[in-house]
Amino acid sequence: MIIYRYTALIFLIFILAACGIKSDPVAKSSLDIPYPTAIDYAINSEGVSIYNGSDNYTLFVERADENIGFFNLAGFKRVALINPKQVFIDTDVVNNRLYKYRFRHYYGRIKTYSPAIIKTIKYYSPIKHANINVTYERNSRVCVYPSLSDVVAKTIVTINGVKAGEAKNGIKTCFDELPVNSATLSVIAMPYDRDNNTGIPYQMNFKRDTSTLNLPPQNVVVKRKGNDIILTWDKEKNNPKYNIYITENGKDKFIKQVDVELFRYTAKDDKCVNFKLATVRNKKVSKKIAVSACK
Asked: Distance (Å, rounded) from C-alpha 154 to C-alpha 23?
């Protein structure tokens, strides 16, 4: 009897110990971890910025230098574990070099990874002018002078959204064909590298002397209520006069000359009325600017 009791006691201890080390069951569906798809990355002056857009999964990031070859998977090294909705910047990168990044979701509770996706990313320092000079000279031309640069291969200049041409490094390039109807010049110098990638644009705005250029009325505002129409525009220096025209059947019909920056008109029907306005200074008429008044 003593032997049987001793054996039963050992068996009971074994059962209790086994129950004590048993872990909570894991649902089979939890092992099916999805591919990481909500990944955003960007190149900046610090390195490669990686964003984990997942709501639930940590992003496991590895990186390999492209020079090791595609099939040398041993070249992948751990870079970071990025929590959901967090950003990591990989600063250990070299300019103008290709890297392969391997991304996997990681489920820490069961220490399991999703299948991997691989993206090839080329890191390059942001392309920008270290030094550039943009000037508006003699109220008639824009000049752009980019300094010599190892990063910028060429500079494309646009003026008021229209391509003006290329400014070469170390050479002052001037552009004479400027917009004739605008009192403001918006000059953008866009740098490109040798792979034709665009960089950070440099912008400069200039206010022109409208009294010498004799530009048409600027910033015309049209207000219409029913058939009542009011036109207003910016006041000019030296109190010029303004010609008002209406375009009908492709022809401009002179309506009235005014000496204030306001014109009232009553339309005859519900159709749009197409106006043209010109500035008159020292008996010289500027080019016309067109505006429409519709219900």
From this structure: 65
